[in-house]
Structure formats: structure tokens, C-alpha cells
Amino acid sequence: MTQRLRILHLEDDPMDAELVLMALSAEGLDCEVQVVSRRDEFDKALERGGMDLILADFALPAFDGMSALAMVRAKLPDLPFVFVSGKLGEEAAIESLKNGATDYVLKSRLSRLGPAVQRALTEAKERVKQRQTEKALEVAYAEIEKRAEDYRNLFNSIRDVIVVADHNRTILHVNQPALMDNFGYKSPEVVGRSSILLYANEDDFHNTGKEVFDVEGPVDGKLIELNFRRKGGEVFIGELYAMKRLDRHGVVTGNISIFRDISQRKKAEADLRESELRRYQLQLELVYAAEIQAKLLPRSYPEIPGFDVSARCLPAKQVGGDFYDWQQVTPTMFNLTLGDVMGKGMAAAMLMATVRAALHAVTLYNAPAQAVHLAEQALNEDLENSESFVTLFHAQLDSVTRTLSFVDCGHGYVFVRRANGAVETLSPRGLPLGVQGGEIYQEGRIQFEKGDVLLLYSDGLIDANPQLELTNEIIAEQITGEESALDTVDRLIALTRQPDPQPDDITVLVVRFTGQ
User: Taking every annotated instance into account, which residue ranges of this chain make up the domain PAC (predicted)?
Assistant: First the structure.
């Protein structure tokens, strides 16, 4: 039987508390939730203990989540703590993670709460296992030290400082190379003196004595993190492994201290935490960027009398530079666009959004050639500064006359497969946006007959599976027999086998004339 999850929830809105419980229950979590809204209630609940998890709103009228986090970390440093808040800015989110929060979830995205809770609980269990493993390693290290046959060679080879002392903690032996490297002393300078000279704080010296060194009988060794002092007065952070010295019969004959300088490790750990925080922040930004970019693409297919339209875009990374779009100009007139920004990733995605916005501003009231001309004028400076360019196919479909007027700005990956199987390449073709050629874009025109299919795609379709050596004719053969635009799109995407990693963005747009 699964143990019930005990949760302390800091929340002043009963409705929000109920929604949180519903979200957890929807994930199959059996929860016992105690809801509090004031500091005194929260403090009493912490004193009682028994919680598996803390959920907290970020801001309450008389209390705040950061104060609650500080209280939890002071009393229960390993207890998972997840913010569940209506608003949590980027700076506040980062600050909460720096201060020890396990995760945060926006109330508008409670679908993330279940996975976040599961992850927080898993990490807590892993920390317990890690401590157990570290303890086991400490015991193993002590056993290796005690059983070493060639004691003198081992003693002088170890880079940690090993101090062998009597019951009064007077230094008897010390490994000279490590002593000089870590403390700056030569062996004769410390032998016969109290080991207190190695400690930066006199209280630390006495406390370790009470816990290990001053005990008469055998005790378990203990690993302690303390500050130590070099011969020149410099203080550094280190680890002390304190243990009793035993003879072969197990009789206590004195004390052993193992000193390790961990200042560089501490710095590396801090740098790693900072790096992980930056990586997490970047990953979070990429997730949000991908969500926004996906929402920029049309959410439904256009209803064009007599035509069936479908499209799909697969970014090579979380975000990409390909896009497709359509606009209804009149009840019978529709604009269709497919663009491919040079490159992929975040830079291409930012340009993609700029190009799409510029086109939206001019395509509704202008014919394709004039619309592209106006868009290029608006985009030239941005494209020049970014040293990039955009291939673009922009068209206007008249469903009454079955006529497609189009401008091809250096794209080229487009053809019409006629009902009889013939493949017709579209022309004219101009230069990409951002390539200064001084030309005036020319419009082309085709007319649909029943069963004709317009297929428009990006070069990522070819790059994804180069062994197929896809041409317009081969692609036309591959889609023979497909009855709908959606089936045609799915068939072409299947040809790529969706490699991982995907070399480039893949976008396909299909227009089929049904004659209905």
C-alpha cells in the first residue's frame, strides 16, 4: 500500500488550495494536505513535523513565501519546498532557487505541479541515498587506512595531511610532503606540539576533542568541515576526518586527524551551482520561446471552398526559423506563405517572428509582389545587421477562379503535381529577402484543376534523409494515392524518419484542389 503524501500548504485563498489539491489528485497522488495562511500556523506545523513536502504561495497579506522558505531551510534543510504562485517574475524565481526552493509552478500552469512534486520527492530521496553512500565511503576509507601493509610509503604518499597524535593531541607523526603543501610547515616545526596550531578557531579544536579525540574508548570516525590556518596566517576551509588510533588488538593508542584543503572544491561547487542555475534559466527561456513560437503558427486550417489545406512545422531545436501562415482576405481570397530564415535555433526564431510580423502588416491589402516589396523595405536593415537572409514563397489564392498568384523569393522548393501525375515547376523565381539585388519581384500564376496538388516545403525535408536524394519528381511519386492534404503532409514527414538530432527545420504546406 502506497504511503499517503503529507503536505503543508501555505495559501490564503481556499479556492486556489482546492485547485492545487485537485491537480495533485489528477496525477494520482494520494495527499493529506494541511492548509495554513499565517506565520504562527506555519511555524507550529513545522514544529509538529511529519511533512513530506511544503507548497507555498509567494505572496500573502501577512506573510510571504521567501520567509517561509527561510524558516524551512533553517529547521528542515532537506524538506522539499515548491512555490505555487499566481505571479512569479524571473528574478524572483531565480532568487527562490538560490535560497533553496526545489522548484516553482505558476497557478496558471497547474498541469506542471504533479511532475514538479514527483521530481522534488525523488530528489529528496536521492539526497538521503547520497549521504548514506558518503558515509559508506568514509568507512571504507578508514578501513583502507588501517589495513595498509606498507604504512610508511602510503603515509608519505597521501596528499591529505595525516597527523598522528597521543591522547593529549600532541603531534607524534605527520606526512611531510602534504604538511608543507597544505600548511607550510616542516615536520620538526609541529612534532611535539599541540595540534591546536593547525586550527583557525580554538573552539573548533575543543569541540572536536569532545566529540572524538578526548573520548577514552573507540568511537566512530567523524568527518567535519572547519577552517584551518597555514603557517603564514592564511585561513582556508577544509575537511577534518577525526578518528581514534588503534593497535592490532583494537586498543586505543591515540588519535588520528586527516586534513584536506577543500577551498578549490568549494569554489568549483559554487561555480557549478551558478552554471546549473544559468543552464536551468536558459532551458526555461527556451521552453517559453518554443511555446510562443508554436502559438504564432495558425491553430486551425483555413476553410477554402473547393480546396483542402494542411501544413506542419518541425523545428530542428526547441525553436526554429521556418514558418507557414495563411490569411483570409475576402470570403473567396486567401493568402498563403512559407518562409525559411537562414540558420536555426534562437537567432533564427527571433528573425522568423520579425519577418512574420512584417508580412502580416502588408499582405492583407496588397497583391503578392507589392506585399513582398513592402516587407523587404521594412526588413532590409534588420536582415543586413544580422547578416542573414530569408527565402520566402508568398501567394494569393482565388477560390472562385481557382487561380494562385505567387512570388518566389529565392525559395524554389515548390511544385504542382497535376491530376495526371505531371510535375510542374513554378516560375519566375527571385532573390531571397536580405540579398541586395535591386530587382523588382515578379508574380507568377497557375490555375488549379480537380485533383491538382500544390506542394511547398523547406530544405529541411531533403536534409533530414539525404540518402533518398529527394527531387520534385520523387516527392510527387511518394504522395501518389494520398486522398487528403493532411495525409500528404504526414506522408512527407514520415519520409524524413525524423532523425535525432534533426539537421534543419522541416516545414511542409500542401494545397489540394478537390473541385467541390
Answer: 222-274
For residue 376, count CB atoms less than 10 angstroms from its CB and return exposed for 0-12, middle for 13-18, buried for 19 or more: buried
- Beta carbons within 8 Å of 501's beta carbon, 6+ residues apart: 316
**pLDDT at residue 292, as a whole number:** 66
- Please name every residue paired with 341 in a beta bridge, in sequence order, or none if there are none: 390
Strand spans (E) along 180-234: 222-229
Q: CA angle, corner 305, sides to 303 and 306, nearest 5?
A: 115
Sign of CA dihedral 479, 483, 488, 490: negative
Strands 5-10 and 31-36, bridge-based pairing: parallel
What whole-number distance in Å separates Cα of residue 481 and Cα of residue 489? 13
Spatial separation of the C-alpha atoms in residues 121 and 227, rounded to whole Å: 33
The separation between the first and the last C-alpha atoms of the chain, rounded to the nearest angstrom, is 61
Where residue 434 falls (left for φ over 0; alpha for ψ -120 to 50; beta otherwise) is left
Nearest-angstrom CA–CA distance, 471 and 468: 9
Domains and CATH numbers, the chain: 5-131 (3.40.50.2300), 158-265 (3.30.450.20), 297-513 (3.60.40.10)
Task: Tell me the per-residue pLDDT of 87-97, one tens digit each, with 9 for 90 and over.
Answer: 777 787 788 88
515: left (phi over 0), alpha (psi -120 to 50) or beta: left
Alpha helices in 212-324 (DSSP H): 263-296
Find where cell 512545422 sits.
313
pTM, whole model, 2 decimals? 0.51
Strand, helix or coil at 240?
Answer: strand
Q: Which residue has the cell 491553430?
A: 299
Cis bond before residue 501 (omega within 30° of 0): yes
Q: Do 344 and 409 contact (CB within 8 A), yes or no?
A: no
Residue with cell 506565520: 39
Checking if the pLDDT of 438 tops 80, the result is no
Determine the Cα–Cα distance for residues 195 and 231; give it in Å rounded to an integer. 13
In contact, 414 and 455? CB cutoff 8 Å: yes
Q: Which 3 state secondary structure label does DSSP give 399?
A: coil
On the question of pLDDT at 7 being above 50, the answer is yes
* DSSP letter, residue 425: E
DSSP-based three-state secondary structure for 13: coil
